[in-house]
């Protein structure tokens, strides 16, 4: 069974306190901290990633996601705190752990001047596979990524979406137990994004553990079993997408656009009809139990927006409520 030394546990029974058996936990972190000088990019966070789940790390730029991801993927050592990954201590066995990981960086980092299949066979050689094994694994990954017809093309000749699929395929060539994906669909058009989602959902069906960072809230809702939202180096919320929505925002949202930029004065009459209210640069957002009734109250109070929409609450609403920032910040 995976254990953390007693002197790093703080005297707690981790298996009892944190739920599932430790054998079912791919990553177990306690009070993880990453400092750069006096600045704490990650400040004493507790993180569990369960085997076979898709775990999402969300947060604004500078929230601590990348530093956390680098610690969990054994690229960077924590400044302090306790961490085990796949049952091993990264301080002593980082190389053995990394041999069981697949990592997809935000930038593809492909060898653009060599053929697609060579990107896979060359990378497979780093893991000590024989040449026949490398060819077999490359063939399997080309099929998985639906790139068989592009095998002899140079990687630099592929479209952005195809390059992203190749980067994911390359990260899987060693049959990793866990895959880290940093913004896996950034820059892709909606159609190609859904193609990548399908590949990742296939990995979930195979019980591959996935850790994902993304700025696309729809992507997080589609893929992630559990999500952690970070801000200023701390975890501000954790749970399933549905749980986070239920616990942090109302059932429905009314969005109001006006010909001029909205102000607090514009929003003043609306506070009484909403559970929560945000004045954004281009609109006013009302969080309400009943959107239709709230829309009628807007008009009764003498406000006539140029555009009014009613929709169900989403994970993006949770993100904005908890971090108070736009996704593009």
UniProtKB/TrEMBL annotation:
Domain of life: Bacteria
Family according to the record: Belongs to the ABC transporter superfamily.
Record Pfam families: ABC_tran
PANTHER family: ABC TRANSPORTER ATP-BINDING PROTEIN, ABC TRANSPORTER ATP-BINDING PROTEIN NATA
Compartment(s): Cell membrane
Record membrane topology: Peripheral membrane protein
GO molecular function: ATP binding
Span of domain ABC transporter: 27-257
Keywords: Antibiotic resistance, ATP-binding, Nucleotide-binding, Transport
Presence of keyword Oxidoreductase: no
Statement: the UniProt record of this protein carries the keyword Nucleotide-binding: yes
Protein name according to UniProt: ATP-binding cassette domain-containing protein
Main location: membrane
